[in-house]
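User: I'm writing a tutorial on reading structure tokens. Could you give me a worked example: one chain, its sequence, then its tokens, then a sentence or two explaining what the tokens reveal?
Assistant: Sure. Here is the example chain.
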Amino acid sequence: MQFVHELYALAGLAKARITFSSAGFLLPVIFASILFSGCSTIASRAGAGLAENLTTAMMEQDDPELVREAVPSYLLLVDSFIVSSPNSTAMLNAGGQMYAAYGAVFVDDPERAKLLTARARLYGERALCSADKDACNLNGLSYDEFVAKVSKIKAGAAAELYTYSLTSLAYIRSNSDDYVAIADLPKIQFAMEHLLSIGGSENEVDIYLYLGILSTLRPQALGGKPAEGRAYFEKAIALSKGENLQAKVEYARSYARLVYDRELHDQLLNEVLAAPVEQPGMTLSNVMAQEQAAALLESADDYF
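And here are its predicted structure tokens:
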């Protein structure tokens, strides 16, 4: 599969459009899934309810800067859970997704982002290994070895495979100057495709969105699959009933710009700007999507 890696390099993926600007799909209501038993400070139902309410409030927040300032406290809290229950897949999933979100979305310092997303990927690896002992030590495998192992993962470990894939993408994004890291993109794309084939994931919209981005990283002449990417984006939009505005932003940024479709590009972004941002569990993501839509429209004349 060396030719795959060479094509990614030729496409200039050190500056690729691997964008993780939507906090919404990186900050799901993860505390609801954490196993609070063993954590004496918040083991009660009241404590669990408080954590769930705090996370819900974060997702309903329309001020991204407030969330940026609040997330570090959550990171330390999840770290403490993992110390107490090091093999808990729920806590490792939570830690991986929180660190991926913060490192890839809210941190501007490149070196700090690398550190945070490295921890995210570590938690993702540990979560998947805890859920499926045959899926340990995936990093460093060749593409064919990776495919052979991941192909055996069943729906029972779908949540952990999603976390592993998400945290790996965040790590790659933060290490986009490292061609060794970039060479793992085809592996993560396969993992996402496998997630769709086995079912069992609660993150279908996000998986289709990521597959759309991955399919449109390169032009068709360099092995990209823009038609497949378009189908993935449209599926994500349909599944979310158009309420996930980030799907339309990425459709415009990753597909419409790649194929130089100005009409589609502007149509999608204007739809985002005209849409209500307040949606259950997506307000924060949608606010950020509108900010990106405005910036993309402003730069459209220069791009096209």
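What the tokens reveal: Residues 1-52 have pLDDT under 50 and may be disordered. The two ends are 34 Å apart (CA to CA).
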